[in-house]
Design a protein that fits this description.
It is a single chain. By secondary structure, the chain is α/β, with parallel strands linked by helices. The chain has two domains: 264 residues, Spore Coat Polysaccharide Biosynthesis Protein SpsA, Chain A; 200 residues, Rossmann fold (3-Layer(aba) Sandwich), CATH 3.40.50.150. The chain is 35% helix and 22% strand. It is built from 18 helices and 20 strands. The strands form three sheets. Strands 1, 2, 3, 4, 5, 6, 8, 9, 10, 11 and 12 form an eleven-stranded mixed β-sheet that branches. It has a seven-stranded mixed β-sheet with strand order 16-15-14-17-18-20-19. Strands 7-13 form a two-stranded antiparallel ribbon. A hairpin with a 2-residue loop joins strand 19 and strand 20. Helix 14 packs parallel to helix 16.
């Protein structure tokens, strides 16, 4: 009987302790005029297990309420008006006051709270969710101090509401001094709320233990947490995007830097350079591997492509979605025309920092090109150009050749240094609907003789067959190549072709 009572008590205790908290993981943050970034930030962290957001609104004048309305209605987000008065410093005083309020609101009903900004994204490196990582690697933690990886703009310009995670990959070296700093996740009921003085770490009750993102214990000296002097992130990292894209940097971040609240212009200018010294693709690989449905349905569907007939999306799908390419690439674009609109290379330069050369026989585009593009535009006659010289500094394997010159395609192909270079993907016009077999037959003979495989024949745009899309078999693993060849990719609309190829993802 006693064993039965004890067993029942244990079951009740386990059930009760599990139900004790209304929320397992919440986030507290303060925001001001960040409507363009709220949705991605919430969707990302909700996907990783955050079940409650306490957002402190400091005098926002944008359309934040419209963005947050569905999240508020579903009780995922709670917005607290937190208008700073003129006499109170924003950092750290006003921010800490918000943190204290968030902790008091969460006492007894939330187990874990993260304290991050809208430009910060928590990345669990070995788990699908934040809670899984906490439970597996930090079972005895009262707090986890997670180091930053600071990202720059990479020269990328984004449209409003365009997501940043899959497009901003330029960042600082891991051991940049700023990457030793970070933010905290804490157990609410183990924090000394009244003693909080710093937004990056919170003072714990006696017996509480902090760890860094690599699972190593950290200790307090008085009320100051002694963090590791270098970046530590075996299990957790915070991707920090303080510059966001070029539009935000130039129009918002620089203005903030000279304001009374920030007053850090010299540091921002220095960081603008040092936060663009290398690349970090970990969060992209995490999304693709651990959350593929959201990756394709939310992040990739939000990215803008620019080609007239989805040539850039076709190349991206093959190289990045099927082959898992993560680094920058190289292109040669012949018949470039406009620098952005209906251009086949702009997406790769803008979003993925590809290196390339574009060619057009008209000098009408040079002025706009110098404004909007970094990679060069050569004003040359495509059938007279010396492609061996043009490509002399390119690697042997070039990712993409785009050929769109309205005629003489075969002449250009005959001048291409195929003995020195392999193009992984080629999109080439033949305009069969206009010229019949005049160019198409010769193109195919040349490319087949060079070992290329015609993956998509007679690609159609608005019902007109105008292009062929080719690949070089050596660039594709046998299993991927076999899967591609098995697809029916002949004489279909360009968008339909990509949809068929995307069935091979993941």
């Amino acid at each position: 009987m006693k064993k039965m009572v004890l067993f029942s008590f244990l079951i009740f205790s386990l059930f009760f302790s599990k139900e004790l908290f209304s929320y397992e993981l919440g986030i507290v943050t303060m925001f001001r005029d960040e409507a363009n970034y709220l949705k991605e930030w919430i969707e990302y962290h909700r996907m990783l297990g955050v079940d409650h957001f306490l957002l402190y609104n400091d005098r926002s004048q944008d359309n934040w309420s419209e963005v947050l309305e569905p999240y508020i209605n579903s009780n995922l987000v709670e917005v607290i008006s937190w208008d700073k008065n003129e006499s109170t410093p924003l950092f750290p005083v006003w921010q800490i006051m918000a943190y204290k309020d968030g902790l008091r609101r969460s006492e007894g009903n939330t187990k874990w709270l993260a304290f991050i900004d809208i430009d910060e994204f928590i990345l669990p490196k070995k788990n699908k969710t934040i809670l899984e990582c906490l439970n597996q690697y930090f079972p005895s933690a009262s707090g986890v101090y997670i180091c930053w990886r600071n990202f720059g703009t990479g020269g990328v310009y984004l449209a409003p509401d365009e997501p940043i995670l899959t497009q901003l990959t330029s960042c600082s070296d891991p051991f940049h001094p700023s990457n030793a700093s970070g933010k905290s996740i804490v157990k609410v009921d183990e924090v000394l709320i009244d003693q909080i003085w710093f937004p990056h770490h919170l003072v714990l009750k006696e017996g509480g233990q902090y760890y860094n993102g690599s699972g190593e214990p950290l200790y307090f000296n008085g009320g100051d947490l002694q963090v590791s002097p270098t970046h530590t992130s075996d299990f957790f990292q915070v991707n920090h995007y303080p510059m966001r894209d070029e539009n935000y940097y130039k129009n918002v971040r620089l203005s903030k830097a000279i304001s009374i609240d920030y007053n850090n212009l010299a540091l921002v200018l220095e960081n603008y350079q040092s936060f663009n010294s290398t690349h970090d693709y970990q969060i992209i690989e995490f999304l693709k591997t651990e959350h593929p449905t959201m990756y394709y349905n939310f992040w990739m569907d939000s990215i803008s492509f620019y080609s007239q007939a989805a040539q850039d999306k076709f190349v991206y799908t093959l190289l990045y979605e099927l082959l898992g390419k993560q680094d920058k690439g190289y292109y040669l674009e012949i018949g470039a025309a406009e620098p952005i609109n209906i251009n086949n290379s702009y997406f790769f330069e803008k979003h993925l920092q590809w290196i390339g050369i574009s060619i057009d026989n008209s000098d009408n585009f040079q002025k706009d090109w110098s404004v909007f593009r970094t990679n060069p535009l050569l004003t040359e006659d495509a059938i007279q150009a010396n492609y061996s010289k043009i490509l002399q500094n390119f690697p042997r394997e070039i990712d993409y050749l785009s050929l769109d010159i309205d005629g003489y395609y075969d002449v250009v192909l005959q001048k291409m240094p195929f003995n020195d270079h392999i193009f992984k993907v080629i999109t080439i016009e033949h305009d069969f609907y206009r010229f019949g077999e005049i160019y198409r037959k010769k193109e195919r003979e040349i490319l087949e003789a060079q070992g290329y495989y015609l993956l998509c024949a007679n690609v159609m745009h608005d019902g007109f067959a105008f292009e062929d899309w080719w690949i070089h078999p050596s660039a594709f693993p046998p299993n991927v190549l076999s899967a591609l060849i098995s697809l029916d990719l002949q004489e279909k609309e360009c968008t339909q072709l990509i949809e068929i190829i995307q069935t091979l993802r993941g």
